[in-house]
What does this fold into?
Amino acid sequence: MMDFGLDREVALVTGASSGIGQAIALALGRAGVAVGCGARAGARAAETASRIEAAGGRAVTIEWDVTDSAQAGAAVAAVEQAFGPLSLAVNNAGVGGGTPALDMTPDQWQVVFDTNVNGVFYSCQAEARAMQQHGRGAIVNIASISATIANRNLTQAQYNSSKAAVVHLTKSLAVEWAPLGIRVNAVSPGYTLTPMNRRPEVAELVTEFADTTPLGRLAEPEEIAGPVLFLLGPAASYITGVDLLVDGGYCCW
Ligand code: NAP
It folds into this structure.
């Protein structure tokens, strides 16, 4: 009989200091997973780790800028030193950017690709190098509905195309690493109530997002964590290379 539990697993989550990444790290901790909480700002990631420990879980803080390929191996090594072989990873760290394409500077383009695409690749590579030594692993990359649609009323060509790259990178790595026992999937959130979407200045836009979503509201960060845990776990043992839309039906309209 299949055991769908995640306890005894060891995970690394990038961007664990805020929003969706924090909700995923906390949910993994509650599921009995030992969690490496990564972010550039160590103090903010440490807060997530403390919350996991306060709830009886195991966690360690990893100060890590995902745009620096040289830091990825050390980040994985730090988690393995704390808890043993890495078996799960969630590459969630990402940045937005809203600039009309005609006005966009090379720097505005580059900063989004450095984090959202290069950062996800460097992270996946370091994680899979460790996982292949143990013969198994599962990785989830956080993409976005913006990989599938060009968001109405938002000018963010660099963000949209970076997330499309995350989805195809995910599929490419899934087929390349399937023989190693490593599954690679993507989760694409719709509009989610993270700090970015709770700012008073975007209240009007957020109402519009809710009105144009079949479920009539934005997602809570925890509602993204559930599908991530499903894809990481044994319940998804025959799933690799998918992009799971978690968008309240947004892309149906
Ligand atoms: P958020 O609250 O701004 O959190 C972003 C996280 O990424 C923070 O923990 C941040 O930590 C980390 N981060 C940013 N740049 C980093 C870097 N270079 N190296 C390491 N960590 C870095 O964002 P969110 O709304 O939760 O979004 C999380 C992910 O979901 C992103 O990939 C985003 O594109 C995607 N997404 C969000 C929504 C939404 O509506 N919120 C919808 C679709 C997809 P530090 O600043 O401390 O490093």
